[in-house]
Amino acid sequence: MTDQANLRAQTLIEALPYMRSFQGQTVVIKYGGHAMVDDDLKRSFALNVILLRTVGIYPVIVHGGGPQINRLLKELNIASEFVDGMRVTTPEIMDVVQMVLLGQVNTSIVSLINHHGGRAVGLSGHDGNLLRASRMQLARGAAGNQPPEIVDIGLVGEPEKVDPQVLRTLEHGQFIPVIAPVGVGPEGESLNINADLVAAAIAAGLRASKLILLTDTRGVLDGQGNLIQELTPPQVGELMEVGIIKGGMIPKVSCCLEALEAGVERAHIIDGRVPNALLLEIFTDQGVGTVFRSDWRSQA
């Protein structure tokens, strides 16, 4: 019993300087993957977020919902097509996207946090004009000297402008914002946006101290499958060139680098399958994922 008590005390002591350092800072968290499905991990996530807010850190959550959207589209017998990893979003599919993201996923996350003692509020890009977006255009290369083909993927957007006023108001009111990745298009229409892109844009708009992407991987791995705990932008470029960073990790890493370029101090890709992953990454020396630093030049 004494050894366990000492271990707990040492853990708190290790966390103390991090709590002091990040007090009053904003942390934007992309919530997705297995952490949104497993009941124990969902409870762990909610308690982690509440603890962050209790010690004076401002968590802002952006969530995904791709699997849930796929499930409902299948139940409704609505065909769904992807182009270069982006869902072609017709008005009919956009209705389903909003139904799932706003009516199901967002509400369930807000309820989960509130059930465990937090004060969460659900939002989309429409609330307070939070997230303006432009229509995304995909360009495909053509043969010879022909210009690239522009592929219409419908009501899919990319972040253009973040107005953080509503988030600042909620933060100072002791609330935890939970944001669905739906933006406002040029004509006031709803646009379906990749949640990683939204999280990076929100982090940049808030000048957050951290952007954290919860994933179903340990982080960025080297050629032998070992976790790379820290990366700088030049190192990322080298790893992409030799094919170590590839596939679905490329857009996540790119989001992290864009956030750094926009003024976010640290970006993290962490394993959301690990219980208490947020606390371990923020409040311990080792962390549980890969961190990208904005101050790499000064430390080179």
Question: How does this structure look, described?
Answer:
It is built from ten helices and 14 strands. The chain has about 300 residues and is α/β, with parallel strands linked by helices. It has a domain at about 25-205 and about 255-275: Carbamate kinase. The chain starts with a helix and ends with a helix. The mean pLDDT is about 90.
The CATH superfamily of the domain at 25-204 and 254-274 appears as: Acetylglutamate kinase-like
Which fold name is given in CATH as the topology of the domain at 25-204 and 254-274?
Carbamate kinase
Low-confidence stretches: none
Query: For the largest beta sheet, what order do the strands appear in spatially?
Result: 5-8-2-1-11-13-14-12
| Beta-strand residue percentage | 15-25%
* Chain-averaged pLDDT: 90
Roughly what percent helix? Answer: 40-55%
Rg, nearest Å: 20 Å
Output the helix-strand order: HEHEHEEHEEEHEEEHEEHHEHEH
Number of strands: 14
Q: Describe the main β-sheet briefly.
A: 8 strands, mixed
What's the CATH C level of the domain at 25-204 and 254-274? Alpha Beta
Number of helices: 10
- In whole angstroms, the N-to-C terminal distance is 45 Å
Architecture of the domain at 25-204 and 254-274 in CATH? Answer: 3-Layer(aba) Sandwich
Write the layout of secondary structure elements.
Elements: H1 2-22, E1 26-31, H2 39-54, E2 58-63, H3 66-75, E3 82-83, E4 86-87, H4 91-115, E5 120-123, E6 131-140, E7 149-162, H5 165-172, E8 176-179, E9 182-184, E10 190-192, H6 195-206, E11 210-215, E12 230-231, H7 233-241, H8 249-261, E13 266-271, H9 277-283, E14 289-293, H10 296-299
Helix pairs in contact: 3-4, 6-8
